Structures are given as structure tokens and as C-alpha cells.
UniProtKB/TrEMBL annotation:
Keywords: Acyltransferase, Glutathione biosynthesis, Hydrolase, Transferase, Zymogen
PROSITE patterns (alphabetical): G_GLU_TRANSPEPTIDASE (PS00462)
Taxonomic lineage: Bacteria, Pseudomonadati, Pseudomonadota, Betaproteobacteria, Burkholderiales
Name of the protein in question: Glutathione hydrolase proenzyme
Residues that hold L-glutamate according to the record: 127, 419-421, 443, 472-473, 494
Similarity field: Belongs to the gamma-glutamyltransferase family.
Pathway annotation: Sulfur metabolism; glutathione metabolism
GO MF entry, a single one: glutathione hydrolase activity
GO annotation, biological process: glutathione biosynthetic process; glutathione catabolic process
InterPro entries recorded: GGT_bact, GGT_CS, GGT_lsub, GGT_peptidase, GGT_ssub_C, Ntn_hydrolases_N
């Protein structure tokens, strides 16, 4: 039995899609998505019970998921019915989305998984890495200028994928079911096909235009047409090999051969790069806030640090926020000043922790943030004084996305964000393998001071180097209360990821909104560059009096923004409350 909420049910028709001519890929796609609904797929649960070990007594009334599409919810339900736990379900969801949500779900990308298992927090970094032959200036022409699009489209944009290794590691360490069982739903969707919804056709059409015939994308995906069954026989074979031979097949077996062949003469990834790829268990970033323990993403994500900085500074600024209405002009102005500081620190200090000693503790230190918040006032003139990184100028020592949240009835949780970066990544499909490769190399800084597709610069700490992981903003987060999971949350959105999560958490905890309202409230975004710019979202535009007030304050308003597709589960007592962002087509489902 299950109880379900659908994001599509909340989609508002007030989209400003027609006002977004210059929006970049992911922004346009999300705006389009907000206009479309999604048909329901049928689900047949598999017979229960072949878990490896007996389960402890349940702590919650049910398990639950908040996932970006219906097929993934069905896969999770199948896994829970078979006795799987949150990690089994998460791995099944991840492989399923690689089939049914191919613009972001992936085996050719990478990501982060935050886990709470048997009362302990864990973090798995399966971020992509630069190939061994990557060089700092690989995207510059003879004159030292960035070659447009090179880090985004085609073979040279691709970093060594981490997703399969990540799922393999997570399932091996924490899963209860057999590896083959968790891949079964994905293999079935790839073999038998699934019904394409209009939003997926729109995303495919947009991506195809973007790739401009420079890749083999159309040969694989031109049949993604609304209403049609879409089958992926090569992907089914790849998944079947991975299911039979284990996750390392992707890095050492026939799939590795296919990737290396695809790259040969065009891209940089070799069999050695694949062989050397390893996911890394890292200490999650943790902090106390508002009576909760936050467990979130460490570097190479900037998201965990950014989220904690925002939450703590807002708490420090309580007197200034007193009586200030949510999303009013003074509210946006105060938050924008906090965001200037967070993005200034991000640019200076955040990078791959295997290359740099990132000063995480200092950056989330209470006294540091209290001091940092001191300069924030309601009367500040936007852009009047340049915002600098807060720990001084010293360098630290020598370092299309989707999210899903899962809890099981035993009180374990997975918060997972993974990505191809742009919609359908680089547009390069592995011939014979049937899957798209990422364009994560764009998350490095190609040249000092040049913004990436999300408009962020990231300084010397995020230059390209062999084997380095590019700086990310992905922020899969779990909140604990008295050692028990209270919230599982995350979203796609590039540099908007942690500002979106911050806003939803603020709505939940500072404004006591129910989950659905916390998600549907307006969200805005501001970062260091471009200065004085507030980004609004098509789902709930900033217009009318609020727009006039912000302009009068000195802000420029930009409406090119995709402001996330948050998938979260809040636990109230023993009842999980999953909620999917109305901006997308996700599904929140309680599973008995
Ligand atoms: O790792 C990052 O921060 C980006 N590659 C994430 C990209 C993203 O969220 C695109 N989503 N819509």
C-alpha cells in the first residue's frame, strides 16, 4: 500500500516561460517542465523477502521516498517490498533514473550520497575526476581565451564518471539485498521500455539543439517522443553486465572498453583513468543549528559549507530579521548580503580536499560567522563595498543533476544528489553502451575570473589538474533531532542548490510552514557575480511592487533561473512526510 503526493498537482500556470529567451539549458528545461504534467505508470510489486539478514524492529510507521519521477518511486517500492533498506532503495532509484530520467539520472556522471545508517552519519563522494591527461589550460585557445562550449559539449567536456562505483560502494557497505536485485527495476525499464512524457520530449529537443549535431546524441535519443515506448537495448546490456559482474565492470570490463573506444582520438579518458577511479568515504560536514544536527556535504562540494554559513548567519541576524516578512524586499536584501559573503568564501577557499586542505571548520565556526554577519544591515547599499573572503587572502594549503531522498522504516536515510551537469551532459553517448557521459569539466575554473555555466568563478583552488575533482554545489543533507532523522533534503540547480535548500529549511523551521507550502513558496537567488543581481524563477516571478522595491534599492532583476527541484522527507514523530517540489514532476510516496 502507498500514499502519494505528486508535484504535478501543484504546478501553477503562472509560468513566465515566455519571458526567458536567454535562459540557459537547465533554466529553460525547468521552465518548460513547469508547464507539463505527467501520466502515471503502473506498478507491480515483486514478492517480498529475500533480504540477507533479519531486520530490526521498525522505528517509523512506514518507509518513504521523494524522487524526481514516478518510475523511481515504483522501483523503491519494489525494493522495500523485497525487504531492502534505504540504501538498497536509493541504489535502485539511482539506476532507474539513469533509464527513465536520462537528462540527469545517470551512470555516466557522478554525485554525492549522505547516509544515516544504524544511528551513524556517512558521506560518499562519487564525484567525477579530471582525466590524467587534463591540463590547467585545456579549454583555452592560442591567445589564452576560453573556447566557448568546449567544457560543455562533446568528448573533451567529459570527466571520469563515478556513479556506478558510488552505488557499488554504498550497496556493498550498507545494502541488505543482492546487487542484482537492486538493478532489476532499471534493467526492466531499459529492456521493456517506458512511456515517454511530454516534459522528457521537450528536454530532449532542447538538448539536441544545444548539441547542434556535434555529438551522437540524436542517434540514441531522437525516439524520445511523448506517448511512445522508449526502449534502450544497449543500456539494458550495460546494466545487465554491471548486475552480473559487479560495479567494477564499468571501470575494468567491457563497459570500460566501450568508454575508452568512444573517447579514443576525441576525448581524454583512458582505460587507466577508469581503472584508477575510486569513490571516497569522507567525513560529512556537521553542525548544530536550531536544536538540530545538520549532516551535509563536505568538499569537493561547496554546498554543505554554504548551507551552514547561511543558516548560522541568519540565526545571528535574528534582531534584523525580526518582523521582516518572508520574501519581502528587506528580507531578500538581508539574505543577498549573506549570500555575497558565502560566495566570496566559496570562490577563495573551496575545492577538492584531496588537493587542498579546505578550512571547513574555520568557515563554519560560530564566532567567525557571527563576525561575518556583523556588517550586514538593512540599510546597506547593494554593491557599495566589494565583499571579500572572510579568512584573509591566503590560499588554503595544498583541493543536469537530480536529487532523491529515502527513509526506511528502521530509521535509516539516504540523501543523494547526482548529475551529468548540463541536461544530457556532454551529449556524447557511449556507442554500444547506450548511456550519456557528463560535462562535469565545466565545474572547474577554465581560466581565472571566467564564470562557468552557473555564473560562478571559483579561483585558483578549483583549476584543472589530473585526477582532481571539480568543485560542486550539490548538497545532499540530513537533519537529525536527538539522534533520529528529522529531515532528508536536496535539490539540483548548480550554484542555486544550497541557496534553495536554505530557503526551504528557513520556511520549514523559521516560518513553521507545512512541507508542501515550504516547497511552493517563492525562491530567489543571489551570488557574488554578477553584482547586485537578484534572480527570480519562472515558477513564482518577482514582479509588481516587490520588483519595484528591489530595483529602487539598486538591484537588477534577472528571470533566467531554475531554482531547484527539491525532494524532501520530513519526519513528524514516527510518520514520514515526503514532499516533491511542485516545480518538477517528482513523487512523494509513503510505502508500507
Ligand atoms: O556539481 C554541481 O554543482 C553542478 N554540476 C550541478 C549541476 C546542476 O545542478 C544542474 N541542475 N540542474
Amino acid at each position: 500500500m502507498h500514499v502519494e503526493t505528486h508535484a504535478g498537482a501543484h504546478v501553477r500556470s503562472r509560468s513566465a516561460h515566455h519571458r526567458l529567451p536567454a535562459a540557459r539549458g537547465w533554466a529553460r528545461v525547468a521552465a518548460t517542465l513547469a508547464l507539463t504534467g505527467m501520466l502515471l505508470a503502473s506498478f507491480v510489486a515483486s514478492p517480498a523477502a529475500n533480504a540477507k539478514t533479519p531486520q530490526p524492529k521498525p522505528m517509523l510507521d512506514a518507509s518513504a521516498v521523494a524522487v524526481p519521477d514516478r518510475y523511481a518511486a515504483d522501483a523503491a517500492q519494489q525494493i522495500f517490498a523485497a525487504g531492502g533498506n534505504a540504501v538498497d532503495a536509493a541504489v535502485a532509484v539511482s539506476f532507474t533514473l539513469a533509464v527513465t530520467y536520462p537528462d540527469a539520472g545517470n551512470i555516466g556522471g557522478g554525485g554525492f550520497m549522505t547516509v544515516y545508517m544504524d544511528g551513524k552519519p556517512y558521506f560518499l563522494d562519487y564525484r567525477e575526476k579530471a582525466p590524467q591527461s587534463a591540463t590547467r589550460d585545456m579549454y583555452l585557445d592560442d591567445k589564452g581565451n576560453v573556447i566557448k562550449g568546449m567544457s560543455l559539449v562533446g568528448h573533451r567536456a567529459v570527466a571520469v564518471p563515478g556513479t556506478v562505483e558510488g552505488m557499488w560502494e554504498a550497496q556493498k557497505r550498507f545494502g541488505k539485498l543482492k546487487w542484482k536485485q537492486v538493478l532489476a527495476p532499471a534493467i526492466k525499464y531499459a529492456t521493456d521500455g517506458f512511456t515517454v512524457q511530454p516534459w522528457l520530449q521537450q528536454r530532449r529537443e532542447f538538448a539536441s539543439k544545444n548539441f547542434g549535431g556535434k555529438t551522437n546524441f540524436d542517434a540514441y535519443f531522437s525516439n524520445l517522443k511523448a506517448g511512445a515506448m522508449f526502449r534502450q537495448p544497449e543500456l539494458a546490456q550495460t546494466l545487465t553486465r554491471i548486475a552480473s559482474d559487479g560495479g567494477r565492470e564499468f571501470y575494468e570490463g567491457q563497459t570500460a572498453d566501450l568508454i575508452a573506444q568512444q573517447m579514443y582520438g576525441h576525448g581524454l579518458i583512458t582505460k587507466t583513468d577508469l581503472l584508477q577511479y575510486k569513490a571516497v568515504w569522507r567525513e560529512p560536514v556537521t553542525a548544530s543549528w536550531n536544536g538540530y544536527q545538520i549532516v551535509t556535504a563536505p568538499p569537493p562540494s561547496s554546498g554543505g559549507v554554504g548551507l551552514i554559513q547561511l543558516l548560522k548567519m541568519k540565526a545571528d541576524l535574528k534582531p534584523q530579521f525580526d518582523g521582516v516578512a518572508l520574501n519581502s524586499e528587506p528580507y531578500i536584501h538581508l539574505i543577498a548580503q549573506m549570500e555575497d559573503r558565502v560566495f566570496a568564501d566559496r570562490q577563495q577557499y573551496l575545492g577538492d580536499p584531496d588537493s587542498y586542505r579546505v578550512p571547513v571548520d574555520k568557515l563554519i565556526d560560530d564566532a567567525y560567522l557571527a563576525k561575518r554577519a556583523e556588517g550586514i544591515t538593512p540599510d546597506e547599499v547593494p554593491g557599495a563595498a566589494p565583499v571579500k573572503p572572510g579568512l584573509g587572502d591566503s590560499m588554503p594549503e595544498k583541493a543536469q543533476t537530480t536529487h532523491f531522498s529515502v527513509v526506511d522504516k528502521w530509521g535509516n536515510a539516504v540523501s543523494n544528489t547526482y548529475t551529468l551537469n548540463g541536461p544530457f551532459g556532454s551529449g556524447v553517448v557511449v556507442d554500444g553502451g547506450g548511456f550519456v557521459l557528463n560535462d562535469e569539466m565545466d565545474d572547474f575554473e577554465a581560466k581565472a575570473g571566467v564564470q562557468n555555466q552557473f555564473g560562478v568563478t571559483s579561483g585558483d583552488v578549483n583549476t584543472i589538474a589530473p585526477g582532481r575533482r571539480p568543485l560542486s554545489s550539490m548538497t545532499p543533507t540530513i537533519l537529525l533531532k536527538d539522534g533520529k532523522v528529522s529531515l532528508v533534503i536536496g535539490t539540483p540547480g548548480g550554484s542555486r542548490i544550497f541557496t534553495s535548500i536554505f530557503q526551504v529549511m528557513t520556511n520549514l523551521y523559521d516560518f513553521n510552514m507545512p512541507p508542501a507550502d515550504a516547497l511552493s513558496a517563492m525562491r530567489f537567488h543571489h551570488q557574488l557575480l554578477p553584482q547586485k543581481t537578484i534572480y527570480w524563477e519562472p515558477y513564482r516571478p518577482i514582479d509588481g511592487e516587490l520588483a519595484d522595491q528591489l530595483k529602487a534599492r539598486g538591484y537588477t532583476l534577472e528571470g533566467q533561473l531554475f531554482n531547484g527541484d527539491v525532494q524532501m522527507i520530513r519526519i513528524d514523530g514516527t510518520a514520514p512526510q515526503p514532499a516533491a517540489d511542485p516545480r518538477g514532476v517528482g513523487v512523494g510516496r509513503v510505502i508500507q
